[in-house]
Write a sequence for this structure.
């Protein structure tokens, strides 16, 4: 069933778990993510990012993603991740996305506030939810999410008092913070600033989001969630798992695309399910 961020993140915040956002560019990835959510009885957020549009145009993705989400037996949020332009955010809302992220994190603070506030009013009028970003989660060299800037340096980590001001002034339903992660595969293990997460969670009411969820350890996830993270974004790990599975299948028996596609669905399902378990969003006993 279709849901928005409030439907899935408010319970997560109360009960102390996180809901995963998994980005998709095609039908097989989407199928794998929804299969995992249904098998695990877990809510899920499925997204695509503006930088991924060349691999899966927004209109095409909306065409199958929304109807698959409606038919799912668990709550599915259909989310635009890293909307970088006003146009992409408006298009996603028009197409029926139940949630958007308007990423103005590279703009000066006042501009970020003003643009996100305006977009929050529009999204809410659609009955949709909105995520903003403060501080700046950068990219590792091989990030597929796009050119969002360099890997975070300490100066770009989210300031707790500014986070409170930003969340209150913009009315965002979720706030992405920079606390040591980056998009894409890490060359060196990242060092998360858990104290900063705790401090922000203590004074900001909006659920907090951790981007760059691929390559973190189970312990990183558990600590981040314990300190107040409610949504964790993942793409690289499922993207790579899909290709590795397709290559293995090709070596074994593959001749055509129909030999490889089931392996992609299965690999995305496995990797997504593993993350859901660590995030604690799965039903008891699964
Ligand atoms: P990874 O690709 O590092 O998992 O990051 C995903 C992300 O944060 C999407 O917004």
């Amino acid at each position: 069933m279709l849901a928005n961020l409030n439907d899935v993140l408010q319970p997560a915040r109360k009960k102390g778990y996180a809901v995963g956002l998994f980005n998709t560019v095609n039908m097989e990835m989407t199928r794998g993510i929804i299969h995992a959510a249904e098998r695990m009885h877990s809510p899920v957020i499925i997204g695509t990012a503006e930088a991924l549009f060349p691999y899966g145009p927004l209109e095409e993705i909306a065409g199958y993603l929304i109807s698959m989400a409606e038919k799912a037996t668990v709550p599915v949020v259909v989310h635009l991740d890293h909307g970088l332009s006003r146009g992409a955010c408006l298009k996603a809302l028009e197409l029926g996305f139940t949630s958007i992220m308007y990423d103005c994190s590279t703009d000066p603070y006042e501009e970020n506030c003003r643009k996100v506030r305006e977009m929050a009013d529009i999204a809410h009028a659609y009955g949709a939810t909105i995520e903003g970003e403060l501080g700046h989660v950068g990219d590792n060299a091989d990030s597929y999410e796009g050119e969002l800037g360099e890997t975070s340096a300490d100066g770009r980590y989210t300031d707790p008092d500014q986070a409170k001001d930003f969340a209150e002034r913009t009315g965002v339903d979720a706030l992405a913070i920079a606390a040591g992660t980056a998009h894409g595969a890490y060359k060196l293990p990242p060092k998360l600033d858990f104290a900063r997460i705790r401090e922000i969670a203590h004074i900001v009411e909006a659920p907090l989001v951790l981007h760059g969820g691929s390559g973190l350890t189970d312990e990183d996830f558990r600590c981040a969630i314990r300190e107040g993270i409610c949504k964790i974004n993942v793409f690289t790990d499922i993207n790579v798992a899909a290709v590795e599975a397709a290559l293995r299948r090709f070596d074994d028996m593959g001749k055509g695309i129909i030999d490889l596609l089931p392996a992609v669905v299965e690999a995305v399902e496995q990797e997504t399910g593993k993350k859901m378990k660590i995030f604690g969003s799965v039903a008891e006993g699964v």
